[in-house]
Amino acid sequence: MSVLSLALIAPLASAALTDPADPTPAPKSDHITDTSQLPSGWQKSGDRIVTYDGDGTGLHVLVADAADAYKWHTAATLSEPGIDTDQWIGQTCVTGSGDRAVVVYAPRQAVNDQQGFQQGAFAAVVDLADGTVTKLPELVSLAYFNPGCGDGEQAVLTRPQGDDTELLTVDTAQAKLVRQQTVTGQLTSAVPFGNKIAAASGDSVVSVDAKGTTSTLARTGGTPFRLVPDAHSGLAYQVPAGKKVQVRRVTSTGSDRLLGSGALGALAVHGNGGRVFVTGTDAGDAVKTLPKSWRTLDVPASAEVSTTGGLALTSVGNGTEAAGGKKAAADIAQAVGIGAVLPGSDSTVDFTVKPRISRTSQGAEQSPALSDGVHTDSVTPGDDDPSTSTTDPDRACAVTRNDPKLQSLQPSTAQVEWATDLAVQGKLDVRRRSGWNGSELPSYTPQGLFPSTALKGGGRVPAQIMLGVLSQESNLLQASSRAAAGESSNFIQGGYYGNAGSVHTVDWAAADCGYGIAQVTSGMAKADTTYTAEQQQAITVDYAANIAAGLQILQDKWNQLYDKGLLVNGGDPQYLENWWLALWAYNSGFNLPSSTDATAPWGLGWFNNPANGLYPADRKMFLSSGYDDARNPNLWTYPERVLGWAAYSQQTTDPATGATVRAFTVGDWPTGNAPDAQPAHDTFCKPTVNDCDITKPHKVEGSTQPEGPCQRDDFKCWWNQPVSWTDCTATCGTEVLKYQAGDPEPKVAAPHPAACTSTLPANALIVDDVPNTVKFRVGGANPCAGERNWTSRGSLKFTFGSAQLNGATVYPSKIDFHQLGAGFGGHFWLTHTRVPGYTDSVVTGTWTPDRRVAGSAEVMVHLPDHEANTPSATYRIDLGDGTVVEKTISQDTGGKNAWVSLGSYEFKGTPSVSLSSATADGTGDASIAWDAVAFVPVKGK
Questions:
Q1: What's the whole-number mean pLDDT along residues 873-900?
Q2: Residue 758: pLDDT band by 50, 70, 90 thresholds?
Q3: Does position 158 have pLDDT exceeding 50, yes or no?
């Protein structure tokens, strides 16, 4: 269950764009229109605010300057070609000059996998003046504190390396890495500090010199976080103290001082260029003694602060971060709503920003952190060869991509809730007739293939727990996010190609075979015989079967922990919080006791422990402060995210009203407040259980590892005991079912219905993109029944660009190659255009009729109503005698299924029409499609 194998403080309040309560909101500008709200001299102010927001097009770095009345513009949009995701996430920090930002970014799914979280994020330097993007050649951590900027032009990126931490120093003026060093132990919140690096290590603030030598600056009563250098050789930081948080300052010589304290989550430190800002609505009262270059700002603690403190952002979001995988068109970004306050006044400001994506931006170019293969030209050997087959005969996973007979149907959120509610009741017995969704599967029922497993101790899985898992694993998607509800496509997958995000790498040995809405991985490798071929295909094609299989896995995790006595709050499964440990195991596994060493650690791993310093100590419950939390899911552990979805749901758009509503029914909490039942962050940190102690620094004799809460060099502070933190009868959530056994499967209408009927003359010679044996179905229905008045007379054959990797020929061009159940006859293929030099990314398709054409005929191409927008589709038409003519057209039809003419020609034999994804303007953004072609005889010629 991975991605590429696949609380910054209290979270921001929900963004303005996500609020459905106001049906007629006032129009918002991208700048402050009433400049009387601004302080005198604003035209000459150097204040700058930088924020970010992500959608399916990339992570947008947004900038506004006070001198321009805080008019927002897009500095850059960062993404990686070939990564299929509905949302890019990440963080930024701004250098001391305010001229540059360092950005860490990754696809949303990276948070579901420990390796993706720890070592799967990309990094870049963005010049905020001209938008120049320089991507850095290393993958880094997605932890909330990454990146860390100092008071100058350097920044620090971190990456766990085994039991140690790698620190990467970036000189942003040169836009390059200038130092890489590995330090023993787990370091967090690293920032440049003088000519060294300051970081948190366990219960200490430490400094690291250029040789990697670590020294202690201050020892604290908890794990320090949110380190900010000031202009006078000091370092601001926070440290939790029970239910409070302290604001402290330590100098480079080790002089440490408490400046104030408040409720945990009520204060935060921010900074830029040596300035330190303490935010919180009572910050002025909590921190009364301020060092030089420090200020308190009476704004929410979670606010993002501008470089000199002139503006504070209280909400940022596009309204789709929690919208169940809603995906914009390939080059259309979602508008971002921004709420802000002007510190020192009562003025609030709301902005609406439309991110602009430059087709010439380096933000979409592949990161150098991803290794390329040796590019070779496309080759064209015989049938069923990986260079010509759309499928992957050489794959490592059980079910191939791009088989027209194995497409996944995208469910609506109502269908997901229906299947989940019935599955947890053991009643998901809807009959799938043979050939369901165009497959070759025999008739089956989802829980006939994957029967519900009885829980040891009795009871069953609450529906909201399973819905939370599905939300976190896939954003409720069974198929690629390119497919709308009611449309079919390839299955949503994690690390099918083992490429770690690179569009130039195929590494079958590293493949992670996560399939569909529950990201079912176990049993889905080609060599794995856990499931039958029928079960594997049903997991791929049918969201209901996938949910049934995912439920089995979760039930097995509960039973495995039950056998070891790992129960929560007494172990009654009806209470949502009591699934905490099973969710932990579902995501990162369970380490069994050693059969030979009774003293060896065993249990649930350190990665998902809430006490882990990878997560901010003052975070509140996921989504409890608003849907902006979904902008940064990496700030919470997996169980925290699942419980957040269970309590607050994903969002969706009501098709009848256009309003934003909950995607599914949420659980019920007796207090009406889900956070009341959440465990403290140190609940799973006990010295006598897992060698973890957040209050007592520990140093291992003979080890260079600094003090820390996990007191083992190998970080095997694994939890293996029952735990209780609340009276569930008084505080815990329980399920609320919307659907009962026997309720029919909800209907869904695809927004892009297929063009079933040919509108061409009856004598047109049509060559479709798939054989006549491929059956277009949507679930059990045939949308083209009685409407298809044509037969394909020929074939479409592809050649795929290849590369040499590890001595083998592989086909990276298939990574960004897709199918959709729409267009002419209910199927077309697509990829994205690239410049010809990327030979390993180029796909060429050639339509050839099964007969000769003599005389004049008009060549027509069918273009689908979506996912085809390149302005530079160049068709090469072979007239049958070796003569080739070219015709370049735009594939953008304005949202209509349409036949487009390529012109009339004199044919003298068996013709063909070829289309390549290589274009002079190819940047990986514009989509290019292969649907049907036709040869229409011209009368009188």
A1: 97
A2: very high
A3: yes
Q: Report CA dihedral (381, 385, 386, 392) to the nearest 10 degrees.
A: 170
Could you tell me how far CA 396 lies from the centroid of its own chain? 23
Residue whose C-alpha is closest to residue 721's, from 698, 753, 689 = 689
Helix or strand (DSSP H, E) at 886:
strand 884-889
CA distance 349 to 125: 29
pLDDT digits (tens, 9 = 90+) for 642-674: 999 999 999 998 878 888 899 999 999 999 999
CB atoms within 10 A of CB 676: 15
Q: How many CA within 13 A on the CB side of residue 426?
A: 8
User: Model pTM greater than 0.90?
Assistant: no
What is d(CA 25, CA 572) in angstroms, rounded to the nearest whole number?
A: 45
Q: What is the DSSP string of 807-824?
A: TEEE-GGGTT-EEES-SB
What DSSP string describes 243-282?
TEEEEEEEETT--EEEEEEEETTS-EEEEETTEEEEESTT
Q: For residue 147, is the peptide bond before it cis, meaning its omega torsion is within 30 degrees of 0?
A: yes
Q: What is the Cα–Cα distance from 194 to 70, expressed in whole angstroms? A: 32
Query: What's the whole-number average pLDDT of the chain?
Result: 90
Judged by DSSP in three states, 585 sits in helix
Identify which of 62, 630, 689 has the alpha carbon closest to the alpha carbon of residue 322: 630
**CA-to-CA separations, 614 to 7, 226, 324, 475, 707, in angstroms, rounded:** 11, 12, 26, 23, 16
User: Collapsing DSSP states into helix, strand and coil, what is residue 92?
Assistant: strand
CA gap 377, 379 in Å, rounded = 6
| Euclidean distance between CA atoms 738 and 664, whole angstroms | 9
494 contacts 4 by C-beta, under 8 angstroms:
yes
Q: What are phi and psi of 375, to 5 degrees?
A: -65, 140
Q: Mind listing the pLDDT tens digit for each residue in 250-264?
A: 999 999 999 999 999
pLDDT at 716 over 90: yes
* SS3 state of residue 701: coil
Whole-angstrom distance, CA of residue 158 vs CA of residue 145: 9
Task: Compute the distance between CA of residue 194 and CA of residue 151 in angstroms, rounded to an integer.
Answer: 9
Selected residue with higher pLDDT from 894 and 939: 894
Q: Give the integer Cα–Cα distance in Å for 338 and 340.
A: 7
Residue 536 has pLDDT above 90, yes or no: yes
3 state DSSP class of 194:
coil
For 395, 499, 925, the CA distances from 814, given in Å and listed in that order, are 11, 12, 16
Residue 491: burial class (beta carbons within 10 Å; 0-12, 13-18, 19+)? buried
How far apart CA 659 and CA 656 sit, in angstroms, is 8
The closest alpha carbon to 480, from 468, 471, 472, 488, belongs to 488
Centre a 10 Å sphere on the Cβ of residue 447 and count the other Cβ atoms it contains.
24
pLDDT at 334: 87
When pLDDT is cut at 50, 70 and 90, the band that residue 522 belongs to is: very high
Helix H segments across 462-506? 463-474
Using a 10 angstrom Cβ sphere, with 0-12 exposed, 13-18 middle and 19 or more buried, the burial of residue 659 is exposed
Cα–Cα distance for residue pair 105/90, rounded to 1 Å:
4
The whole-angstrom separation of Cα 146 and Cα 103 is 9
Torsion of CA 542, 543, 547, 549, to 10 degrees: 20
* pLDDT for the residue numbered 4: 38
Ranking 330-334, 473-477, 626-630 by mean pLDDT, the lowest is 330-334
| Burial 206-223, CB ≥16 within 10 A → b, else e | bbbeeeeebeebbbbebb
DSSP 30-57: SS-S-GGGSPTTGGG---EEEEEEEETT
Q: Is residue 13 scored above 90 in pLDDT?
A: no
